[in-house]
Sequence to fold (98 residues):
Amino acid sequence: MTISYWLLILVLAIAAFTIRVLGLFAGDAIKSSRFNWVLDELPGLIVVSLVASSLAGQPLGTWVAAGVALAVAYFTNHVILTMFVGVAAFGLLLWLGV
Fold:
């Protein structure tokens, strides 16, 4: 490998390390501010954003199955049951041609 590859690896390693250190400082600053509630809600917000971006552009059957899974999650608060019912609803809707 040439020196340019090694320099690129070094720059990317420094950038990755810097991002992590800045994240630690930002997290500490948020913990001591009036916005510390954001850190408590962050895991749920990340999951919602991942699900929403996954549903974008999907057919109606996928949205209905996601709605069924959301209803099961809301009423039961049981992760395994939610996954099972959501997959079953998706499979049934796919089988029905929706």
Observations:
- Residues 57-98 form one domain.
